[in-house]
Please model this.
Amino acid sequence: MAATLFSDIQYLKGVGQARGEKYRKLGINSPYELIYHIPRAYLDFRAHVPVAQAVLNDYNVLKLTILKKLPPQRIKGGLVICKAAASDGIDDILIVIYNNVYYFQALKEGGTYYMYGKVNGNFLRKEISSPVYIKAEEKVLIQPVYHLTQGLSVTMVRNNMRQALDMMHREPFETLPDEILRRYELCPLMDALENIHFPQSDMAAEIARRRLAFDELLKLQLGMSMMKTRSRRSTAYKMDSSISVAPFVEGLPFELTDDQKKAVSEIVADLCKDVPMNRLLQGDVGSGKTAAAAAACYFAAKNGTQSALMAPTEILASQHYRTLSEFLEPFGVRVSLLTGSLTAKKKAALREQIAAGETDVVVGTHAIIQKDVEYRDLALVITDEQHRFGVAQRAALAEKGDSPHKLVMSATPIPRTLALIIYGDLDISAITQLPKGRKPVKTYAVTGKLRSRAFGFVRDRLNEGRQAYVVCPMIEESESDLFAVKTYAENAAKNDLKGYVTALLHGKMKAAEKDKVMKKFRDGEIQVLICTTVVEVGVDVPNAAVMVIENAERFGLSQLHQLRGRVGRGQYESSCILITDNTSDECVKRMKIMSSTSDGFKISEEDLKMRGPGDFFGSAQHGLPPLKIADIACNMELMNKAQNCARELLAADPELDSRENRALKMDVMRLFNKDIIG
Ligand code: ADP
Ligand code: MG
Model:
């Protein structure tokens, strides 16, 4: 049987078993998947220079004719060196190829080639070592460069790619209806796939990239939207709308903001439907998402059901446990904490209580939804700091119990256009205002020269009874000049912070140790926490009023914003001091934005403008299926177009079952895990 695009890669002409193995290592199992192995760059042989103009100790493209091949030299260690004299018609140069006799043999005396390689030597004698070359007669002067694995050379991949593309052209296919191609000005898929690998011009590569990036964004959007529809199976936990959350809301030590109230009523309304809730609660750090989540737990408990609240770290889990107990226990709602650091005996006892329905709210890390934890009536699952949980986990959750309601909370506010893609499977509630009386954190960006003055300020605040964080990018000293918490803490204890109680917190510490430090910090026994970004997520110590960030250039806008959100959580005026000696435009701009606004939605909008949406996809933070092209090639305009297109397609054909959409649906299923969509 002849190989097809979907046969095992090893049956592609010229591949075979051994090389097939290498491809599988790269996640390429079929010629089709090979075609979607997108070049990471191109080698442009059009840009050749005369030998005399080659930049020494750097890579150059030369056009050379082989004058004389010298016999290969064997030297010790089995190494073979092959050399040939060559000329560009004016100057001579030596070609040196190490350990690749076959590659050398293919060069013919008298033949002319484009060669790309590192040029060494001096004014008089030059050599180009281990060049990549193509014949001068070759028509394709822009050659793709791929991510490779040991044993696969770029030439092999190019040759196999050529085979796969030829096979593809014999059985052409298209995933998008003509009408869409026309309206969104996209090139046909066959042209895109040909030209992404072997473009005749920069323009051709660009057009190909646009089409493929559009495809990816479209598939992503379609998949997310379809997941949303899928998870609308009925839930066993339609709650009773005549039960009121008012007693809880009125019992809180503060009045909920309007946004919080709106979020609570949206959540309660969802819980009273017979399809499971699937909602994202977006809100800046400190906007009070936890109170809204607690209201949901209260409502679920008063409906006689259980809730689970998952946090990404144990620190956060224990913090949530404390907050929820405080809010809920007065109403007879029983809250428990299930974490890895409990003894086996306690864990077992707690598991029994959960199964017997003797506790109403279970707080912990994602261990609490594992198979070995059985609930009597799990109706509501809340995940905090959503961006740490991926799409797959979101989908796995849907399988738990009798389709529980799901609420995910994210403190990384993102613009709506982006949210629609990343959280396309969720409804969105947003808390955009901070609680009343909250003072914005004063933010200053300074250079290292002002460090000791900055610490003078820190000491003043400590003397007033406040606490502070100092964040450094590294744990241990390394080759780089970046600050590391360990040495930083030692120095600070001797100098700037002499006489103050400081402590270290970083990701390599044991969970129990971290908890101990956090507890002491919360209790005010530690004045300054010198830490890495482990404090980034959700830590809440209202008395902490100063945040110092060293090497601020190392952190993106969103991360800086997250870190800053650790202060300004109580009634005290708070400050954030960003220290950096970096003067690049990009860094200066980031520091300016940080100093001028504290609105998380605005900051993420700026972040999006500066970095483009690719970074959001590329960071893997959101747990989306990995994108191959869109993460580097897409822009907002393309993203909006893909979004509109998805909306139109689904409006006309919600399950993409019509004949002309079937290929697209297959593609969507391929991008996502099949079980999620299929
Ligand atoms: P986040 O949205 O970052 O999870 P939290 O829920 O931790 O924010 O709330 C931050 C702090 O603000 C907590 O100490 C919380 O008790 C308090 N808080 C929440 N809502 C209000 C409100 N409406 N008024 C005053 N304080 C509030
Ligand atoms: Mg929080």
